[in-house]
Design brief:
There is one protein chain. This protein is an alpha+beta fold. The protein has one domain: Nucleoid-associated protein YbaB-like domain (Ybab, Chain: A, 2-Layer Sandwich), CATH 3.30.1310. 57% of the residues lie in helices and 17% in strands. The protein is built from two helices and three strands, in the order αβββα. It has a three-stranded antiparallel sheet. It is rod-shaped and about 70 Å long. It starts with a helix and ends in a 9-residue tail after the last helix. 9% of the residues are buried.
């Protein structure tokens, strides 16, 4: 019978953690990170759900003769924004879980 009490307590703790995680995921969807490439000519903002919120391109970097450079700058900024967003999420999740690695959480 003692094990049943421990299992019940573990279930309660798991439910609390699940509720905290749901709240954190909602909060993270509102937090953003910003990055830039090309000396600030391309700026990208992403949220904690790894969605790109905005892309700003300065007109000086738009060269019809060199579209590939513009594409590379955009890709670099987008990938960096997504990486920073993932780092933000990982950092917040580790605060919540106390550094435990729980498979399937994020």
């Amino acid at each position: 019978m003692k094990n049943m009490g421990n299992i019940g307590q573990m279930m309660k703790e798991a439910q609390k953690l699940q509720a905290k995680m749901a709240k954190l995921q909602e909060e993270l969807s509102e937090k953003t990170v910003e990055t830039a490439s090309g000396g600030g000519m391309i700026k990208v903002v992403a949220n904690g759900k790894q969605h790109i919120i905005s892309i700003q391109i300065e007109k000086e970097v738009v060269d019809p003769e060199d579209v590939e450079m513009l594409q590379d700058l955009i890709l670099a900024a987008v990938n960096d924004a997504l990486a920073k967003s993932q780092e933000m999420v990982s950092g917040e999740m580790s605060k919540l879980t106390g550094g435990l690695s729980i498979p399937g959480l994020m």
